[in-house]
Write a structure and sequence with these properties.
This protein has about 100 residues and is mainly α. It has a domain of about 70 residues. Helices cover about 65% and strands about 0% of the residues. The N and C termini lie far apart (about 75 Å).
Length: about 100
């Protein structure tokens, strides 16, 4: 690119970004983004944060109220046998075929 070529590409990029943001320029563009950001914060972000904090507070209160309750800390290990019996004989493929 020549000296003015990169300036043109920067100008094109700025135009694209400006059009993508609604085509507003200057103070009105900034004001519209501030209004949109404020609305988004008060309608979505703030209520979500308050709900999460409230749920954490409830969980902490529930945990504090019953300090001796049992809490499962590990996932149970599934029984690897096909029959589901603890001491049962594993069924093999040939036995299944004979039953069918």
């Amino acid at each position: 690119m020549t000296g003015s070529g990169w300036m043109r590409s920067i100008g094109t990029a700025r135009t694209f970004v400006g059009n993508a943001m609604g085509g507003l320029r200057g103070g009105s563009n900034l004001a519209s983004w501030v209004v949109a950001g404020s609305l988004a914060y008060y309608l979505w972000v703030k209520p979500a944060r308050e709900l999460k904090k409230e749920q954490e507070d409830r969980a902490a209160l529930a945990a504090a109220s019953d300090a001796y309750r049992y809490v499962e800390k590990r996932k149970p290990i599934p029984d690897p046998q096909e029959t589901g019996l603890i001491y049962g004989k594993k069924r093999d493929i040939e036995t299944k075929k004979r039953e069918d």
